[in-house]
Write a structure and sequence with these properties.
The protein has one domain: Methylamine Dehydrogenase, Chain H (7 Propeller). Strands 12, 13, 14, 15 and 16 form a 5-stranded antiparallel sheet that branches. It is mainly beta. The protein is built from no helices and 37 strands. β9 and β10 form a beta hairpin.
Length: about 500
């Protein structure tokens, strides 16, 4: 696994929002792979690859050994140089594959770093998060990638991949719970990096804690890079919160995977239908209700999305809320025709204004040395404006966008509804195609300006549901898992 000697640091996705709509900043540096669920620490879902010319040609590989393969519901992770794809199955297999798929470089199903010794990884529905540290030794570039992933068996594992045929488990965090309670890590981890020492500075992951009586509560754990506990929220003695199965996001004071001190705010939704905002030391800044306003008993497990100054949270009834990072409300969108079961994506789209006739220019008075008539004014060409949007797919398959520059944006349909329900969180390509899977096993790529799909699309991958969120490599190849236990690569020539 070789590449140029640079530290892997992505840049935060910041939506360019006007004063009434909230948000602010510029577009992210997306020239990296797909390091975690939703791509970056703001959960933007926006990558650097372009898919408009993606051929739709598919290849696939089975992750589990023997028998009937289990579902892949988590999102793949991709190194910055597109060389390695990391993917996990619900049977408890974590694998590293070359970009061309084929034979996995390694597969692992247990960890020897746990307090009780060797332990099976258990059901893996959490998506892997990866960080590659590059260095120089004896004029040779050496790399090692650290992989973080949560498990339904109550552990958060850390693996170290040095680029060979084996992987080392170096961390196994297991929270201490009393009273017969059990914990599940269904949340996908978010991590931050320290650009000075070029390493991971913290790993953040949500948990679902089940009591013997069947009641569920939640925790947000902040871990050190070696997998030990830094802090937890809520702390002992504080009021309980709902189960945390969403992926946390950072807003304000962050650039990509870099959290800059006390200015960073950690935001996540919980199943008690609240959005929580924490300071960098784990203390509560504020919380805001963002649940189903029609039926508050419906739990919310959709990840929030942040910009430099704003957090956006979808609700199960089809509304999207925008709040300042101090918790004050900005707006609530008009609800879509059905609710959301998948996360949002954010980015720009080219919007072509209608052609208008140019205002005729006054005929200039010829100067004495000039003969002939003046050059006529040409007809005005359509103007193209770059605007900031949120994109989403409803449970019923309706693809929608919101212009966050306006004070109260409407949920505008982009295309005819997809024929099958959608649980796959969409990825947004650099050329503004929204890529997602549906329950009938089809992968879609919707042009966010026209609502159309590229030639040869949509692509039928399988007869099984696609719940996995696609990851778009820098070269435009799309990787996604499916319930048939296969990892698919689309556009790999």
């Amino acid at each position: 696994m070789k590449k140029s000697g640079r530290v892997l640091i992505a840049v935060l996705c910041s939506l360019a929002c006007a004063c009434g709509g909230g948000g602010g900043g510029s577009s992210p540096d997306t020239a990296t792979g797909w390091q975690k669920f939703r791509h970056d620490s703001s959960n933007s879902g926006l990558g650097g690859g372009t898919v408009g010319a993606n051929s739709g040609q598919k290849q696939s590989v089975q992750i589990d050994d023997g028998g009937t393969p289990s579902a892949i519901s988590s999102s793949p992770a991709i190194t910055a140089d597109d060389s390695t794809i990391y993917v996990a199955s619900e049977a408890g297999t974590l694998a590293a594959l070359p970009r061309t798929l084929g034979t996995p470089r390694w597969k692992v199903s247990s960890c020897g770093a746990c307090p009780q010794g060797q332990q099976a990884l258990g059901t893996l529905m959490s998506s892997p998060a990866v960080y590659t540290l590059t260095g120089q030794s004896d004029n040779e570039l050496n790399e090692q990638t650290t992989i973080f992933i949560g498990s339904s068996n109550g552990s958060v594992f850390s693996f170290q991949d040095a680029g060979g045929s084996e992987v080392s488990c170096i961390g196994c965090f297991q929270p201490a719970l009393g009273g017969g309670a059990t914990v599940k890590f269904l949340s996908s981890p978010t991590f931050t990096t320290d650009p000075v020492v070029a390493t991971v500075s913290g790993v953040f992951i949500g948990a679902q804690i089940d009591s013997p009586t069947g009641q569920s509560s939640g925790k947000l754990y902040a871990l050190n890079r070696n997998g030990t506990l830094n802090w937890e929220f809520p702390r002992p003695g504080q009021p309980a919160i709902g189960a945390v199965t969403s992926s946390p996001a950072f807003g304000g004071g962050t650039t990509g995977l870099v959290a800059s001190g006390s200015g960073a705010t950690l935001l996540f939704t919980a199943a008690d239908n609240y959005l929580y905002a924490l300071a960098s030391d784990g203390t509560l800044k504020w919380k805001s209700p963002v649940g189903n306003v029609v039926d508050p008993t419906v739990p919310l497990a959709i990840s929030a999305l942040t910009s430099a100054t704003t957090v956006f949270a979808p609700t199960a009834d089809g509304s999207i809320l925008a709040l300042n990072l101090d918790g004050s409300p900005l707006w609530t969108s008009v609800a879509a025709t059905s609710g959301f079961a998948a996360s949002l994506a954010a980015g720009d789209a080219a919007v072509v204004s209608p052609t208008t006739a140019a205002t005729p220019a006054a005929t200039p008075t010829p100067q004495p040395a000039v003969t002939g008539s003046a050059t006529p004014t040409p007809t005005a060409a359509p103007t193209v404006a770059q605007q900031s949007f949120l994109y989403a797919v409803t449970k019923s398959g309706e693809v929608v966008r919101l212009n966050v520059r306006v004070p109260t944006p409407a949920v505008v349909p982009l295309s005819a509804a997809i024929a099958s329900p959608v649980l796959s969180s969409p990825a947004l390509s650099a050329d503004t195609y929204l890529v997602f899977g549906s329950n009938d096993g089809t992968l879609h790529a919707i042009n966010t300006s026209t609502g159309s799909e590229p030639s040869g699309w949509p692509v039928k991958l399988t007869n099984s549901p696609i719940r996995s969120s696609p990851a778009i490599a820098t070269d435009g190849v799309i990787y996604v898992g499916a319930d048939d236990g296969m990892l698919y690569a689309v556009g790999l020539e």
